[in-house]
Amino acid sequence: MNLGISRDERDGWMVLAVLGDLEMGSAPDLKRAVIAALADGADALVIDLGAVGFIDSTGLGVLIGALRRCRANGAELQLVCAEPRLRELFASVDLDRVFELHVDVAAATGVAL
Amino acid sequence: MNPESMSPSSAKAGDVVLEIPARAEYLELVRAVVAAAAHVDAGIHDDRIEDLRLAVSEATTNAIRAHATLGSDNRIEVRSNVDGDRIEVEVADRGPGFDPESIPDLPDADDPSRLLWESGLGIPLMRQLTDESAWESDNEGSVVRLIVYTSSYLRK
Fold first, then answer.
1. Which residue range(s) make up the domain with B118?
2. pLDDT per residue over B86-140, tens digit each?
3. Which three-class secondary structure state does DSSP give residue A99?
């Protein structure tokens, strides 16, 4: 039930690529990864949800927490989420207005820093 | 549905009943069983099964949290019933209960306080994803009843 999370540098962004279901049992893994990335000095983060098949409200909550932490640290945060059902999920609780959802990592890291 | 009878109903012939320990490790099993039970009726659109799968996962997550607040090792019951044109799932816990009327509305997405809203999305999601949702709760536990109509291809 743990998430696979890999870290990669790209064009000044730190990309956290997440693999697995983002829910109650696994969401704390992502929270820890974001805290660790900020502690390591990242000032521009991408969370890539391209290999995530399921997100629930706990997972959405951790993403909101990630955005709050990034803003508190003066860091940028972009999300990659191309799957239509997951994009609908963000929209159903208005989070499409809180996050910009990019279709791939290149689009996310293309955002001007 | 008779609103007077929200307590866990007795088993019906078509029921699929799953009892789980109140642990996050069992969420995936609950989602799989509910989706498989819904698939027994081939007429149900896959998108609606996905909606129900997420809504039931939310209800079960809340049930697991409710048991955790009591340190209870009681089990959680998830009952699925496919009956004609509807799928009904009940999630029953033995947690401390809550007041369903006390759930605050989400702040608007433009409201800066929305970023403090890391929890509390579960009930709004369950309402959105299902055709009917109802809660009954007292100090001996809570029952969530979620209904999706097989004829409704689109969400509300």
1. 15-149
2. 899 999 999 999 887 777 777 887 887 777 777 788 988 999 999 999 999 999 9
3. coil
Token pair listed for A107: 């689009």
**Total count of domains within chain B:** 1
The answer to whether A78 and A102 have CB atoms below 8 angstroms apart is yes
Q: What is the set of domains in chain A, with CATH numbers?
A: 4-109 (3.30.750.24)
Residue B120 is assigned to a structural domain of this protein: yes
Number of A/B CB contacts below 8 angstroms equals 72
Cα A102 from Cα B34, distance rounded (Å) = 31
**In a domain? residue B1:** no
Looking up residue B104, the CATH number of its domain turns out to be 3.30.565.10
Residue A68 C-alpha, separation from nearest chain B C-alpha, in angstroms = 6
ipTM: 0.87
Q: Is B110's CB within 8 Å of A97's CB?
A: yes
Q: Write out the H or E segment, with its range, that includes residue A29.
A: helix A27-39
Among chain B residues, the shortest Cα distance to A27 is held by B24
pTM above 0.90, yes or no: no
* Angle between helix A27-39 and A57-72 (nearest 10): 10
- How many Å apart are CA B59 and CA B53, to the nearest integer? 10
